[in-house]
Design a protein that fits this description.
Blueprint (H helix, E strand, L loop, with lengths): L2 E6 L2 E6 L20 H4 L3 E7 L2 E5 L3 E4 L4 H5 L2 H8 L9 E3 L5 H4 L9 E5 H10 L2 H9 L2 E5 L2 E4 L2 E5 L8 E7 L2 E5 L7 H6 L8 H16 L4 E3 L9
Parallel strand pairs: 5-6, 6-7, 7-8, 12-13
Antiparallel strand pairs: 1-4, 2-3, 4-5, 9-10, 10-11, 11-12
């Protein structure tokens, strides 16, 4: 049976401006987002997100969603692997549940290794990123067009579209039962359990997300690793 370890937990690093005169707000900005200059310049303006990055140890060592670029460039992944008595050369394959950069920006660290990603997701990446980005973060690996398939002993991929057109989840048979690593099929426990979906989803995407969550729940996993909730939910 395979083993599942959360390699790096989901985190958010906030950034912003503090008491600066160099920042200008257009008076036509959405009032829901901007409630006055005094409030805005003294609080974070944005955030840098990292997803849950997961290590699977089976007959192959697989990382699902290596995470943000900084997870690689700051040495966080290599340091974490070292804690587990592994290094980059020990990793056989990468799975990208989808193409967003908080899940894929560290791909380049594993250049030449197999990358499992759905063709629809590669096509989608080409619409939201520039071609050099796709080359640097996807095509630098040995791209395997993935779908409903087994990729290692007790490890299989299932298609769970909705968050993006080619979103996938990874199912792992472990001694404790089935573990579902679902990326942003549900980003948070509230999305998973209460179906409170993000407002930017189209009606069609919401339908697909709900179908994908239904699929995961029908498998009765003993644990689920979401894209952006810490730890496993049971």
């Amino acid at each position: 049976m395979a083993q599942v370890t959360i390699l790096i937990e989901s985190a958010v690093r906030r950034f912003g401006l503090y008491k600066t005169s160099l920042f200008h707000i257009d008076s036509h900005c959405d009032e829901d987002l901007v409630d006055g200059i005094e409030n805005l310049v003294n609080r974070p303006l944005g955030f840098e997100v990292n997803c849950n990055s997961v290590l699977i140890r089976s007959d192959k060592n697989i990382i699902v969603d290596p995470g943000h670029f900084n997870m690689a460039s700051y040495g966080i992944i290599t340091a974490r692997l070292k804690e587990l008595n592994l290094d980059i050369s020990d990793i056989d394959a990468i799975v990208n549940t989808h193409c967003h950069d908080d899940h894929t920006g560290a791909n380049y660290l594993f250049r030449g290794k197999k990358l499992y990603i759905h063709q629809r997701e590669l096509d989608f990446a080409r619409t939201i990123y520039w071609k050099e980005y796709v080359s640097a973060f996807f095509e630098i690996l040995d791209v395997q067009r993935a779908g409903n398939m087994e990729i290692a002993e007790d490890v299989r991929i299932v298609e769970t579209p909705g968050h993006t057109p080619g979103s996938m989840s990874v199912l792992v048979g472990t001694p404790e039962g089935l573990v579902a690593i679902i990326g942003d099929t549900a980003m948070t426990e509230r999305e998973m359990k209460e179906r409170e979906l993000s407002r930017w989803y189209t009606p069609e995407a919401k339908t697909d997300v709900n179908k994908s969550i239904d699929l995961i729940q029908s498998l009765h996993p003993s644990a689920i690793i979401l894209g952006h909730s810490r730890g496993m939910i049971r």
